[in-house]
């Protein structure tokens, strides 16, 4: 699905998978910070979130890994938003 359409029509849950110190330097509006290293331990929390979920990081690499893990573990409506700047642009 097109990310622009998701942001326009569905108000996704936005997860920043960067480290806490990175999150504090700036983040997308309403983003929840769950560092990549915590994603596996917080799987059940992801399953309870409002879908769809968009994950992002600095470049899209960590968020891609998070998306792949989540999809492999039953969270199907999760998308890689890429970088923090890309997600902020989608929110505009």
What features would you describe in this structure?
With 92 residues, this protein is of the alpha/beta class. The protein has a single domain, classed as Rhodanese-like domain (Oxidized Rhodanese, domain 1, 3-Layer(aba) Sandwich), CATH 3.40.250. It is 45% helix and 18% strand. It contains 6 helices and 4 strands, in the order H-E-H-E-H-H-E-H-E-H. The chain has helices at residues 3-9, 20-23, 36-39, 43-48, 61-72, 84-91, and strands at residues 13-16, 32-33, 53-57, 78-83. A 4-stranded parallel sheet has the order 2-1-3-4. Helix 2 (20-23) links the parallel strand 1 and strand 2 (32-33).
Strand content: 15-25%
Q: Major β-sheet, in short?
A: 4 strands, parallel
CATH topology: Oxidized Rhodanese, domain 1
Mean pLDDT: 97
Count of helices? 6
Domain module count: 1
Strand order of the largest sheet: 2-1-3-4
CATH architecture: 3-Layer(aba) Sandwich
CATH superfamily: Rhodanese-like domain
**Shape type:** globular
The low-confidence parts are none
Cα separation of the termini: 19 Å
Q: How many E-type strands?
A: 4
Quickly describe the structure.
The chain has helices spanning 3-9, 20-23, 36-39, 43-48, 61-72, 84-91, and strands at residues 13-16, 32-33, 53-57, 78-83. It is α/β, with parallel strands linked by helices. It has a single domain, classed as Oxidized Rhodanese, domain 1 (3-Layer(aba) Sandwich), CATH 3.40.250.10.
Secondary structure: elements and pairs:
Blueprint: H1 3-9, E1 13-16, H2 20-23, E2 32-33, H3 36-39, H4 43-48, E3 53-57, H5 61-72, E4 78-83, H6 84-91
Parallel strand pairs: 1-2, 1-3, 3-4
């Amino acid at each position: 699905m097109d990310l622009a359409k998701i942001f326009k029509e569905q108000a996704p849950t936005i997860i920043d998978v960067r480290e806490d110190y990175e999150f504090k330097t700036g983040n997308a509006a309403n983003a929840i910070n769950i560092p990549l290293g915590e994603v596996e331990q917080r799987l059940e929390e992801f399953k309870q979130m409002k879908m769809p979920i968009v994950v992002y990081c600095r470049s899209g690499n960590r968020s891609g890994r998070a998306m792949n893990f989540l999809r492999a573990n039953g969270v199907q409506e999760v998308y890689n938003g890429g970088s923090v700047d890309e997600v902020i642009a989608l929110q505009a």
